[in-house]
Design a protein that fits this description.
The protein is an alpha+beta fold. It folds into six domains: about 120 residues, Phosphatidylinositol 3-kinase Catalytic Subunit, Chain A, domain 1 (Ubiquitin-like (UB roll), Roll), CATH 3.10.20; about 100 residues, SH3 type barrels (Roll); about 70 residues, SH3 type barrels, CATH 2.30.30; about 70 residues, Herpes Virus-1 (2-Layer Sandwich); about 190 residues, SRA-YDG (PUA domain-like, Roll), CATH 2.30.280.10; about 100 residues, Zinc/RING finger domain, C3HC4 (zinc finger) (Herpes Virus-1, 2-Layer Sandwich). It is about 15% helix and about 20% strand. The strands form eight sheets. Strands 22, 23, 24, 25, 26, 27, 28, 29, 30 and 31 form a ten-stranded mixed sheet that branches. A six-stranded antiparallel sheet has the order 5-4-1-10-6-9, covered by helices on one side. Strands 14-13-12-11-15 form a five-stranded antiparallel sheet, with no helix packed on it. About 25% of the residues are buried. One of its GO terms (molecular function) is histone binding.
Length: about 850
């Protein structure tokens, strides 16, 4: 089994050369061997990927089975049956160690079809080489096989023919097995007659039910004498074949004489009941206040008040000696006398009993009321209690459905062994079985790339890879700085800026909402009208371009309008919105803050942009906005933004010193540097091969010396010097709150060890105070007795599900836990991560 870890790359190797391909890491299931495979794209076919894996791992494509994370857990069971392997024990982890499931990747599809993202993990199962087929058996050998050898003997079917359990064979002469006879028939032995109505005990429950004797039989049983082991004593056992009146589906049941007694017919009056008496009462062990079944009980206490009568007894559950003590009998007016065998004449009809005993209802919703419609015990659609012969029972949810209530209705009962209702039935056309191709995705079918006739490979750009993680420390509509991201932070690609939460869109220059405002923007020199002066710049709005056909950029072709993102950025100005002439703020510092990111793409227009990557430059605010004709001749909306941030700008001397103190360097995607190094090594190997060819050919001698000269000029790479990072400084208020939070002293001591790592201290705090339920920084934290922190809302949700234990260690918290919020912890988290509670 192998594991595939997908990564994407894109960006400069040197100043002019770029790596714009996807690469993956192929890892064995045990994690001992890992190889990287380069030069892939989102549009790489799965069968092409198999060929690359075969070159590295020497595994033929026919023996490879690729799996990728998904939500179709049932497919794993299909794979287990197919390969006879314990696939369900495999676990897949992506870069953030999130547990996922698997589904199989098939040839003919691309990596994009399976939504393989950046740093996602795929697994490869290597099929075992099939053993050689055995030689066919000779005909004379086959002829010698008997039916019993092939498992086709009839012995089992012969034994299955009889379903009477010896009733007919053991019947004496003159008896009958018919269920209804007008008169009692005396079998000549035993205490009860055939067709007599009796009370019969259920051997599983210990309760007594009304029944009728259908047959009586005798069976001889030999037992050893206690005085001599060799002597045997023959005894006769009488078996009564009874049928329960209310449960005919149980068929005929054989009971011994001790489990049968005359039908109870005498109801005790209140004054006749005394302590110590054994009577028959109605009791429900599961719901003591509801009607249940009939049990023998010994009266323990009897109490009468002005408003109520109470009887407590010990419920006797059969001959095993089991009992339930101190049970309150709810139905004190329905206590029956236990009739002794032979004390009364046999009952030929159930009407001889003074009243019909009632058991607990089969349906708790309608209480077995025949006049009340119920969708639980009858048709789940109409609930009408009629036509039971036309009802179908779902094999999944056990609900009944009339054939004529279905949509479309059925005229006959289906002959299939299993039947499922519309809610439980799976659409076969939507199910992807093991080894089948993917179904066409409606979402991907609507994409511009699906309808394009271009053969261009668009799957190599970093904007196509998607986020590997998402910023959850602040909501997407957060204004102001993102906690833990200082000014001067530098990322190689825009997708990393999106992951950090500074600027969420991958491509769009403005992030905002037209009814709220703009949260961030990117200054990348995409518009010729932009003017960048560092602490202030003139920004051009979006729109006015034809981006049809999945285009990312185009020339200005029409006038811009103050709508969508243009209106969102205008809302940040501390002035009323004017979609005709624009507006200027009198107090521009009172406007909404905008996070500004400068891209290296704008370096050719502005010296304030970074030489490489994308840099966070702090908070700016909109001073004014106005419409004017741009260089293209069309109307564009212009915005003047000024810097309003306490942290120094990254191009100033103070800003550069602060960047050094914080140890801020270029941040690359995971695996990017390794891919670049592998690319360079591949080129070096190629150059060495060319040099060897030059050495063999004298005509290429000059090229050889030139290549050697270039190699001598290249300096040896030296390891970068490790810079000392400025310690994260806590304010007096933060120190006081940390000291006040005594319940989490151990956790704070662990987090304080990371103060020397500068901004990474906040990452440590986020890790330490992560809610185990929602996997976010705890909000309204409840510190449990076992020193774990959980969001109050998460703990309330757990208690609502009747789980009264700690989600982390299962320590019993008690049903009536007050769930007091740790206010010092909440206060310090608000200082470290301002705005993180928004939307929580």
């Amino acid at each position: 089994m192998l594991t595939l870890i997908c990564r994407w790359g894109g960006g400069p190797v040197g100043r002019d050369e770029k790596v714009t391909t996807m690469w993956i890491q192929v890892r064995t299931m045990d994690g001992k061997v890992t190889h990287r495979i380069d030069s892939l794209s989102k549009l790489t076919k799965v069968d092409e990927l198999r060929l690359k894996i075969a070159d590295v791992f020497k595994v033929e494509p026919e023996r490879q089975r690729l799996f990728y994370r998904g939500k179709q857990v049932w497919r794993i069971a299909k794979l287990v049956l197919f390969e006879d392997l314990l696939i369900y024990q495999c676990r897949v982890f992506n870069k953030n160690s999130h547990l996922t499931n698997l589904f199989q990747m098939e040839d003919g599809h691309t990596i994009f079809d399976y939504s393989v993202g950046l740093n996602d993990i795929v697994q490869l199962l290597v099929r075992q080489t099939p053993p050689p087929l055995p030689l066919p058996a000779r005909k004379d050998k086959e002829a010698e096989l008997s039916d019993s050898d092939s498992g086709c003997g009839s012995a089992q079917s012969e034994s299955d023919k009889s379903s009477t359990h010896g009733e007919l064979d053991s019947q004496p002469a003159g008896t009958s097995s018919q269920t209804e006879l007008p008169d009692l028939v005396d079998p000549g032995f035993g205490l009860y007659k055939i067709n007599e109505f009796v009370d019969a005990r259920d051997l599983n429950m210990g309760a007594w039910f009304e029944a009728q004797i259908l047959n009586v039989s005798k069976e001889r049983r030999s037992t050893s004498d206690g005085d001599s082991e060799t002597s045997l004593v023959t005894e006769e056992e009488i078996h009564y074949h009874v049928k329960y009146e209310d449960y005919p589906e149980n068929g005929v049941v054989q009971l011994l004489e001790k489990d049968v007694r005359p039908r109870a017919r005498t109801v005790y009056q209140w004054h006749q009941l005394e302590e110590g008496m054994v009577v028959m009462v109605n009791y429900n062990p599961d719901e003591p206040k509801e009607r249940g079944y009939w049990y023998d009980a010994q009266i323990q206490r009897k109490r009468e008040t002005r408003t109520a009568r109470e009887i407590y007894g010990k419920i006797l559950l059969g001959d095993a000696g089991d009992s339930l003590n101190d049970c309150r009998i709810m139905f004190v007016n329905e206590i029956y006398k236990i009739e002794e065998p032979g004390s009364v004449d046999g009952m030929t009809s159930a009407s001889d009993s003074p009243m019909k005993r009632s058991n607990g209802p089969e349906c708790k919703h309608c209480k077995d009321n025949p006049a009340k419609n119920c969708r639980m015990c009858n048709c789940h659609v109409c609930g009408v209690k009629q036509d039971p012969d036309k009802q179908l029972l779902c094999d999944e949810c056990d609900m009944a459905f009339h054939t004529y209530c279905l949509n479309p209705p059925l005229t006959t009962i289906p002959e299939d062994e299993d039947w499922y209702c519309p809610d439980c039935r799976n659409d076969v056309s939507e199910v992807v079985l093991a080894g089948e191709k993917l179904k066409e995705s409606k979402k991907k079918a609507k994409m511009a790339s699906a309808n394009s006739s271009s053969q261009r490979d668009w799957g190599k750009g970093m904007a196509c890879v998607g986020r590997t993680k998402q910023c959850t420390i602040v909501p997407s509509n957060h204004y102001g700085p993102v906690p833990g991201v200082p000014v001067g932070s530098l990322w190689k690609f825009r997708v990393q800026v999106s992951e950090s939460g500074v600027h969420r869109p991958h491509v769009a220059g403005i992030h905002g909402r037209s009814n709220d405002g703009a949260y961030s923007l990117v200054l990348a020199g995409g518009y010729e009208d932009d003017v960048d002066d560092g602490n202030e710049f003139t920004y051009t709005g979006s729109g006015g371009r034809d981006l049809s056909g999945n285009k990312r950029t185009a020339e200005q072709s029409c006038d811009q309008k103050l709508t969508n993102m243009n209106r969102a950025l205008a809302l940040n100005c501390n002035a009323a919105v004017n979609d005709k002439d624009g507006a200027e703020a009198k107090n521009w510092k009172a406007g909404k803050p905008v996070r500004v990111v400068r891209s290296s793409k704008g370096r050719k227009h502005s010296k304030f942009c970074p030489e490489d990557g994308n840099r966070y430059d702090g908070i700016y605010k909109v001073v004014k906005y106005w419409p004017e004709k741009g260089k293209s001749g069309f109307l564009v909306w212009r915005y003047l933004l000024k810097r309003n941030d306490d942290e120094p700008a990254p191009w100033t001397r103070e800003g550069k010193e602060r960047i050094k103190k914080l140890g801020l360097t270029m941040q690359y995607p995971e695996g990017y540097l390794e891919a670049v190094a592998a690319k360079e090594k591949e080129k070096e190997n190629k150059m060495e091969d060319e040099e060897e060819d030059v050495t063999e050919s004298p005509a290429m001698g000059k090229r050889k010396r030139k290549s050697q000269g270039n190699q001598k000029k290249s300096p040896a790479k030296s390891s970068p010097k490790k810079m000392k990072v400025e310690t994260y400084k806590l304010t007096p208020e933060q120190k006081a709150l940390i000291k006040e939070d005594e319940l989490n002293k151990k956790l704070w001591d662990e987090a304080m060890e990371s103060l020397s790592q500068g901004p990474k201290f906040l990452n440590k705090v986020e890790e330490v105070f992560l809610c185990i339920c929602c996997q976010e920084v705890v909000y309204q934290p409840v510190t449990t007795e076992c020193q774990h922190n959980v969001c109050k809302e998460c703990l309330q949700r757990s208690f609502k599900a009747e789980v009264y234990t700690c989600p982390a260690c299962r320590h019993d918290l008690g049903k009536n836990n007050p769930m007091n919020v740790n206010k010092p912890l909440q206060g310090i988290l608000n200082l470290f991560f301002p705005g993180y509670s928004s939307g929580r």
